[in-house]
Amino acid sequence: MNSGANQAILEERAVWLDDLQTIGPALIIAPHPDDESLGCGGTIAQLRALNYAVHVIFVSDGTMSHPNSASYPAERLRNLREAEAREALRILAINDADCTFLRYKDRQVPMRDQPDFLEATTAVATLIDQVKPSTIFVPWRRDPHPDHRASWQIMQEALRQTTNRPRVLEYLIWLWELGNQRDMPDPDEMNVWEVAIDTVIDQRNRAIAAHCSQVTRLIDDDPTAFYLSPELLTHFEKPRELFLEANSQN
């Protein structure tokens, strides 16, 4: 897939979302620590500047980024990634009390009809009832990464378990690098919103950089390790964030 061309197509369709008060208090669903900063970090920073409450759910433990590291076995790596996540959230003005770690195994976040799916949806539904967000941010439903698709499915089922009816905005992470044409949103399916983040882009970039294990060679003893590539990060250099919202007519 021509990632640059498809990104440009969505950007051409995008409508500026100028009034962040239409978003209000928010719940962020991040499949892994770093998705919150990559997908909507600038929007989070601006919501917090407006004094809106923001709560972040980290669904997986992120431990498959370095599965063969001897210096960072799974538990130590999980603790590191959670510490990095808390630091990123502090940069975005979110307190430690306003994040939840569900700790599902990385790359094994349960999908529908899999073990632990009901447990995960119940946990998210409980948080929706507690937080009462006006808007939920969640990965794009057809994101190529299985944990991202599973997180969207968990959110969708959780909404069936609660009477709260928040707005849902879907953010884009892996569509550009790993997606195919079938993963792209249909013009009749989704509205595309664009949020300007030029005033907070340095703050957002510091939040991304706080995930040191993902953007540096902090852990250097696993030749199979995953890092956020420069190619992927180029999609997050522009002073705006894109969000998809289901067309109410569908």
UniProtKB/TrEMBL annotation:
<dbReference type="InterPro" id="IPR003737">
    <property type="entry name" value="GlcNAc_PI_deacetylase-related"/>
</dbReference>
<dbReference type="GO" id="GO:0016811">
    <property type="term" value="F:hydrolase activity, acting on carbon-nitrogen (but not peptide) bonds, in linear amides"/>
</dbReference>
<protein>
    <submittedName>
        <fullName>N-acetylglucosaminyl deacetylase, LmbE family</fullName>
    </submittedName>
</protein>
<dbReference type="Pfam" id="PF02585">
    <property type="entry name" value="PIG-L"/>
</dbReference>
<dbReference type="InterPro" id="IPR024078">
    <property type="entry name" value="LmbE-like_dom_sf"/>
</dbReference>
